[in-house]
Amino acid sequence: MLLVITYDVNTTQSAGAKRLRKVSKICERYGIRVQNSVFEVLVDAAQLVKLKQELTEAMDSEQDSIRFYRLGNSYQHKIDTLGRTGLLQSGEPMLL
């Protein structure tokens, strides 16, 4: 299934900057960055559980916010883009 993950990490303190980098690195392992704090991630159900666990451990739930938008398996017809794109395609190799 394709997910869009967005996050907002409070960086008013130095600990927030560290959390921001950690959240970003976790998301980069699972998908591709399409905007500064937005990732497209292609995962199965087990990977989603692990991803959520890792992000929960990396964030401060009192200060930060992470959202998951599920586009499902037939996402190809649900996404329109203008300008530079980086959409993850099902079945294509993902270069890390």
Give the overall silhouette. Answer: globular
Instruction: Give me the CATH architecture, please.
Output: 2-Layer Sandwich
Give the fraction of residues assigned to helices: 25-40%
Write down the domain tally.
Answer: 1
What fraction strand? Answer: 25-35%
Number of strands: 4
- String of helices and strands: EHEEHE
Radius of gyration: 14 Å
Task: Examine the coordinates and then state which fold CATH places here, giving the name of the CATH topology.
Answer: Alpha-Beta Plaits
Number of helices, counting only DSSP H or I runs of 4 residues or more: 2
Q: Return the average pLDDT rounded to an integer.
A: 86
For the largest sheet, list the strands in their spatial order: 2-3-1-4
Label the structural class: alpha+beta
N- to C-terminal separation? 19 Å
Task: Output the CATH class name.
Answer: Alpha Beta
The profile of the biggest β sheet is: 4 strands, antiparallel
Query: Which stretches are poorly predicted, pLDDT < 50 over at least 5 residues?
Result: none
Task: Explain the overall architecture.
The chain is α+β, with helices and mostly antiparallel strands and 96 residues long. It contains two helices and four strands; from the N terminus they run E-H-E-E-H-E. The protein is globular. The two termini are 19 Å apart. The mean pLDDT is 86.
Topology:
Blueprint: E1 2-8, H1 14-30, E2 31-35, E3 38-42, H2 45-58, E4 65-72
Antiparallel strand pairs: 1-3, 1-4, 2-3
Helix pairs in contact: 1-2
